[in-house]
Amino acid sequence: FTSDQAGCLLLTFNGNQKIGATTYKPQDVARFCPTNPGDYSAGTFSMYLDGSDVGLTTGGEIIDALEVLADGRLVISTKGNAKVPQNGVGGVIMAQKNDLLVFNYTGYGPVTTGYWDMYLDNILVPGMNKENIISSYIDNGDKYMTFWTNFTVGDETGDYNDIVVIHPDYSADVFWDGDDWGYSGRIHGLHIK
C-alpha cells in the first residue's frame, strides 16, 4: 500500500479481490478514496493500474511492493521475474524480485497506458542477489525496503522484521531492527513519516 497526493490509498492484493463489479488481480493496483475515514470508513474503489494493460500478467509479475513518487509515477517490485514493456517502442525490461521498476504513465485507470524503466537494479547493490523486496518507501533518493526472509545487503544482515535503506550511492544500512523493539512479525507494508 501507499497513498497518493490526493490522500487516496493505493493497494495491491495477494490474490483476486472482488470489490463491487470489479475484480482486482494481484498484478493490479486499486485506489480507495475515502469520504469518511476512520473506524467506519466510507469511500470509493477504482482501478488505478490495470497490470494486464502494461505487461503484468504472470504469477511472477504479482506486485508485492508499491510506492508512488511525487510526480505520480509508481514504483513496484514483483514477486518473481517480470518482463515488461520499455520506452513505448517495443523494448522490454527483464526484472527480478529484488529490483524496483518505475511506471512512466500516460494514463491510469481501467485502460492503463505507459511503459516501465528500471528504478533500482539489484546488481548495483553489493550482496543483493537473492532478496525478495516486499515493501518499499522512497524519500530523497533513499529507498527503504523490507524483504521476505533473511538478507545480506552490503555489510548489513538481518531478517524479515527489519527495514533496510539503500542510499543513492548503493550503500545500505539497517534503518530499523524489529528485534530491538520486540517485533517478530514480517513487515508487508511500509510508510515512514
Description of the structure:
There is one protein chain. The protein has strands at 2-3, 9-11, 17-19, 22-24, 29-36, 42-49, 63-68, 74-78, 82-86, 91-95, 100-107, 113-120, 133-139, 142-147, 151-153, 156-158, 162-166, 172-177. The mean pLDDT is 93. A four-stranded antiparallel beta sheet has the order 1-2-5-6, with no helix packed on it. Strands 7-8-11-12 form a four-stranded antiparallel beta sheet, with no helix packed on it. Strand 13 (133-139) and strand 14 form a beta hairpin. With 193 residues, it is mainly β. The chain is globular and about 45 Å long. It starts with a strand and ends in a 16-residue tail after the last strand. Helices cover 0% and strands 49% of the residues. The protein is built from no helices and 18 strands.
What is the strand tally?
18
The description of the largest β-sheet is: 4 strands, antiparallel
* Quaternary structure state of the chains depicted: single chain
What gross morphology would you assign? globular
Report the uncertain regions: none
Order of helices and strands: EEEEEEEEEEEEEEEEEE
**How helix-rich are the residues, as a percent range?**
under 10%
- Given helix and strand content, the structural type is mainly beta
How many DSSP helices?
Answer: 0
In order across it, which strands form the biggest sheet? 1-2-5-6
In terms of DSSP E residues, the strand content is: over 45%
Rg over C-alpha atoms, rounded to the nearest angstrom: 16 Å
Cα separation of the termini:
14 Å
